[in-house]
Amino acid sequence: MNERHGGAYDRGLADRYYKRDFNPHYFVGDSYNSSKVEAINMTATQIKEYSIGFGDGGDGPFKEL
């Protein structure tokens, strides 16, 4: 599994940390500094990696908003 910054796993983990909704996506390069790939254009493996990252966020800790 690719855990690089901006990758599907990283984005799932970040979405959970910031209490965002489940929304599979990733960035081609660094987050917010490269093209964003939405779920419709992701492979099943990439969506699974996002899901694992989101799940690894578990019950926190979460970002204080």
Provide an overview of this structure.
- Helix 1 runs parallel beside helix 2.
- It is globular and about 30 Å long.
- It has a two-stranded antiparallel ribbon with strand order 1-2.
- It has one domain.
- The model has no long low-confidence stretch (mean pLDDT 93).
- It has 65 residues and is α+β, with helices and mostly antiparallel strands.
- Strand 1 (25-27) and strand 2 form a beta hairpin.
- It contains two helices and two strands.
Question: Quick summary of this structure?
Answer:
The chain has 65 residues and is of the alpha+beta class. Helices cover 35% and strands 9% of the residues.
Which terms would index this structure?
65 residues, alpha+beta, two-stranded antiparallel sheet, 2 helices, 2 strands, 35% helix, 9% strand
Using the alpha-carbon principal axes, give the shape: globular
Largest sheet: 2 strands, antiparallel
| Structural class by secondary-structure content | alpha+beta
Radius of gyration, taken over Cα atoms and rounded to an integer in Å:
11 Å
Topology:
Layout: H1 8-17, E1 25-27, E2 36-38, H2 44-56
Helix pairs in contact: 1-2
